[in-house]
Design brief:
Largest sheet of chain A: 4 strands, mixed
Number of domains of chain A: 1
Shape of chain A: globular
Number of strands of chain A: 4
CATH architecture of one domain in chain B: Up-down Bundle
Distance between the termini of chain A: 41 Å
Strand content of chain A: 5-15%
Order of helices and strands of chain B: HHEEHHHHHHHHH
Radius of gyration of chain A: 22 Å
CATH class of chain A: Mainly Alpha
Helix content of chain A: 55-70%
GO biological process, one term (chain B): protein transport
Order of helices and strands of chain A: EHEEEHHHHHHHHHH
Largest interface: A-B, 27 and 30 residues
Oligomer: heterodimer
Shape of chain B: globular
Distance between the termini of chain B: 20 Å
Radius of gyration of chain B: 18 Å
Strand content of chain B: under 5%
Largest sheet of chain B: 2 strands, antiparallel
Structural class of chain B: mainly alpha
CATH topology of one domain in chain B: Glutathione S-transferase Yfyf (Class Pi), Chain A, domain 2
Family (chain B): Belongs to the metaxin family.
CATH topology of chain A: Glutathione S-transferase Yfyf (Class Pi), Chain A, domain 2
CATH class of one domain in chain B: Mainly Alpha
Subcellular location (chain B): Mitochondrion outer membrane
Helix content of chain B: 55-70%
Keywords (chain B): Acetylation, Membrane, Mitochondrion, Mitochondrion outer membrane, Protein transport, Transport
Protein name (chain B): Metaxin-2
């Protein structure tokens, strides 16, 4: 019926098929509407320099933004919104706007700007997707773009410093999560019993916050206090992302293992460097013994905590 | 956008006087227009103003339940996201409009060369913002299509009711009125934007109704409406 369609997007981890909210939205929508997509995790492609993922390729047509991809799928008769009334369609647009304005800045901040999260999780993960030298350049570029976006849209006066902007965006995000929880209530999906575009978008934005293990997690903790949203994410993951014939789950597991290995290697390198520094300091006659013990403790602490963070 | 506030305050039955000043941006505590000056307090931007008014005991959305409040907030974001950004795009990123209308209007209170410098600066700022949110790559047709989609959604939500949440106006009604009225009455190079809105008869009827109910009584007070109407003839 339709030409074969291929979706290129960021890969997954921590039990998710993708870490990128927009890629996740498109994948979820495809599952909901039954569209046969082959999913291709990006590995070492120059296309990512433009930051255009996810990208759908069908015959000669190349489409890049989630809204346009969803439109294309609908035209190909893969429509998850078939049963919605016009008013519900309007509500969908409104809630998507709410997500983009209120939740997306905090999501970007948690992934790309919060220093501990960025250095220990996001950067190694994305850097491990590319060969040198892209691995050095690309994560930094994505982080700068995220910061730019947040400052330009949210950072006008009277919020002059980054900490004030951060406080504001997290407040907005928590309010948004509360509103979504109230809207979802006790129903299974946002519009009854079948999932629609809105469910795909909400899942795409919430799942990374819910599942990825970051050191700084106050947004995740807030989300965990809203049990209906957590149940919503878990439901979609079990129903639509584990039971596929293409064996998606083992592939997901493989990438998770590969990530684990790469992260372990990076951490080992770091701890080797720390040991070398330690040795140098021991040999140098100027430092008093007290400082050496503190350094040793610090080195020990740093070694153990990244290891414990790696356990899924 | 100032019209949203006027509409909101009229809906709360609070008397308001509008003053146009060239240095208004600097008087405002947040740098954004408009702002209200009440006694010895100055409050700017819709969110804080709504809260300020609520604290004084006037609120339009008290009768809504939690789900409706969530919907109202979502629709307000939609309007901000789509209509406001589209208006900014049209004013600052469409070259023809920029040259003929925006630059002269924005720079009019200042002498040359300040008027050119300030408007180029503002233009550069707006273009940067558009690039950050991904609108820089959009063509005029795509922007108009987005506006159409937004109006379609608003029209569907309004249906045949007098206001968005049935019988009583809320902040959402004020916001939508402000934007739509501005679009319908501001003269630009082409009428495409206002044509898009005119396609939805319930939206134009909505604007007319609010205008008649809340603004016509104040026409005699008209220094404000006259100042505004040099480029914006009232809806008839």
């Amino acid at each position: 019926m339709a030409a074969p369609m291929e979706l290129s997007c960021w890969g997954g981890g921590w039990g998710l098929p993708s870490l990128h909210p927009e890629s996740l939205t498109v994948m979820a929508y495809a599952r909901f509407s039954g569209a046969p997509l082959t999913v291709n995790s990006i590995n070492n492609s120059w296309r990512t320099l433009k930051g255009d993922l996810p990208v759908l390729v069908s015959e000669d047509i190349v489409i890049s933004q989630p809204a346009k991809i969803l439109n294309f799928l609908r035209k190909q008769k893969y429509n998850a919104d078939y049963d919605l009334s016009a008013k519900q369609g309007a509500d969908t647009l409104a809630y998507i706007a709410l997500l983009e304005e209120k939740l997306l800045p905090a999501l970007l901040h948690t992934f790309w700007i919060e220093a501990e999260n960025y250095c220990s999780v996001t950067k190694p993960w994305f850097a491990s997707r590319f060969a040198f030298p892209l691995s050095l350049y690309l994560p930094g570029k994505m982080s700068r773009e995220a910061l730019n976006r947040i400052l330009l849209t949210k950072g006008g006066p009277p919020l002059y410093s980054l900490t004030e902007v951060e406080a504001q965006i997290y407040r907005d995000a928590k309010e948004c999560l509360n509103l979504l929880s109230k809207r979802l209530g006790t129903s299974q999906f946002f519009f009854g019993d079948t999932p629609t575009t809105l469910d795909a978008f909400v899942f795409g934005f919430l799942a990374p916050i819910y599942k990825v293990c970051f050191p700084r997690v106050h947004l995740q903790e807030h989300l965990k206090q809203l049990p209906n949203l957590c149940r919503f994410c878990d439901d979609i993951l079990t129903r639509y992302f584990r039971l596929t014939v293409s064996g998606y789950s083992p592939a997901g597991q493989d990438t998770a293992d590969a990530n684990l290995q790469k992260l372990t290697q990076l951490v080992n390198k770091e701890s080797n460097l720390i040991e070398k520094m330690d040795d140098n300091l021991r040999k140098s006659p100027q430092h008093p013994p007290r400082k050496l013990t503190m350094l040793k403790l610090a080195a020990g602490g740093e070694e153990s905590s990244p290891m414990s963070r790696l356990s899924p | 956008a100032a019209l949203c506030f006027q509409a909101f305050l009229q809906m709360c039955n609070l008397p308001v006087r509008v003053i146009c000043r060239a240095n208004a941006e600097y008087m405002s505590p947040s740098g954004k227009l408009p702002f209200i000056h009440v006694g010895n307090q100055v409050v700017s931007e819709l969110g804080p103003i709504v809260q300020f008014v609520k604290a004084k005991g006037h609120s339009l959305s008290d009768g809504l339940d939690e789900v409706q409040k969530a919907e109202m907030k979502a629709y307000m974001e939609l309007v901000n996201n789509m209509l406001l950004t589209a208006e900014l795009y049209l004013q600052w990123c469409d070259d023809v409009t920029v040259e003929e209308i925006t630059h002269p209007r924005y720079g009019s209170p200042y002498p040359w060369p300040l008027n050119r410098i300030l408007s180029y600066q503002k233009q550069w700022e707006v273009r940067r913002k558009m690039k950050a949110i991904g609108w820089a790559g959009k063509t005029l047709e795509q922007v108009l299509e987005d506006v159409d989609q937004c109006c379609h959604a608003l029209s569907q939500r309004l249906g045949t009711q007098p206001y968005f949440f049935n019988k009583h106006p809320t902040e959402l009604d004020a916001l939508v009125f402000g934007h739509l009225f501005t679009i319908l009455t501001t003269q630009l190079i082409t009428d495409e934007l206002s044509e898009k809105v005119k396609n939805y008869s319930n939206l134009t009827a909505f604007c007319r109704r609010i205008e008649q109910q809340y603004f016509e009584g104040h026409e005699k007070d008209s220094s404000t409406i006259a100042a505004r109407s040099s480029k914006r003839p009232l809806l008839r």
